[in-house]
Amino acid sequence: MKDIIFVHGMFQNPKSWTKWVDYFSRKGYNCITPAWPKHAGEPSELRAHPTEGLGELTLDDVITEIEVLALKYDNPIVIGHSVGGLIAQLLIQRNVAGIGVAINSVAPNMMMDFDWSFLKNATIIMNPLKGDEPIYTDPEMFHGSFANTLAEDEARTEFEKTATHDSRNVLRSCMGSTGHINLDAIHSPLLLIAGEKDEIIPASLVEKNYKAYTDENSITAFKEFSGRSHYICNEPGWEEVAEYIYNWLQQQEQTMINSTYQNQNL
Fold first, then answer.
1. pLDDT confidence band for 116 (50 / 70 / 90)
2. Alpha carbon 111 to chain centroid distance?
3. What is the dihedral of CA 77, 82, 84, 86, to 10 degrees?
4. pLDDT at 144 over 70
């Protein structure tokens, strides 16, 4: 049984992977859904009572915990959303993950996009004048930026189920040395997924991230889904995204099996 580690992004926690765990478990995968530090529990409780020290959390804190977990498995698949997508890329870089899938991923190496919605949301989150004060999400913010393809009542329902507050320092540190990747190095198979209507990580930035990988001997793939927001993993049509990823994983795993067989028979 192959292991998948699902890594959530900012303003979410493992509850956001519930549907995906059910889907991939039925496909025969062992699914692991770690919470970032200070993100374990029910989202409603985390919103009502933010964990002490939440605003001091950095990308280093998060990736260290995920990497220690990943090292307990044999070349696990890592599927990450948003900052979790950057973590998937970093674990590929560190040869900890056997296959990576980065969904609506924060880009490495301070890679930026001049899309207005991206600049606006990044500025709000990273605002240096706020110091270590957490950024508190609310239904209006969630609908306007995170789940903008949903109707207002649908977005509020999803907010209640999955939304959390978060640390500005996570995104700030994504833009520092911790978020650096050698994009010219050979790497394990990596799939980057984008949502056409994403207001936080524009599809153009995900495609730019994809094209920045230069090693011709490595497998790097890109897929954009039309009409999808940053809430791509839970909005209507999430099954299509999961199925695409499943089929792509099957292709990579078969390629690896064939390669092993050929090497054994040389």
1. confident
2. 16
3. 80
4. yes
Residue 216: strand, helix, or coil: coil
Rounded CA gap, 209 and 181, in Å? 11
Q: Tell me what pLDDT residue 113 has.
A: 87
Half-sphere exposure in the Cβ direction for 84 (13 Å, CA): 28
Structure tokens, 115: 């899309």
Classify 28 in phi/psi space as left (phi over 0), alpha (psi -120 to 50) or beta: left
- 211-263 pLDDT, tens per residue? 999 999 999 999 999 999 999 999 999 999 999 999 999 999 888 777 654 55
Supply the CATH classification number for the domain 3-264.
3.40.50.1820
Every domain of the chain and the residues it spans: 3-264
Q: Which tokens go with 184?
A: 């010219």
H-type helices in the chain, by residue range? 18-26, 43-48, 59-70, 83-93, 116-126, 139-141, 152-162, 168-174, 203-212, 238-264
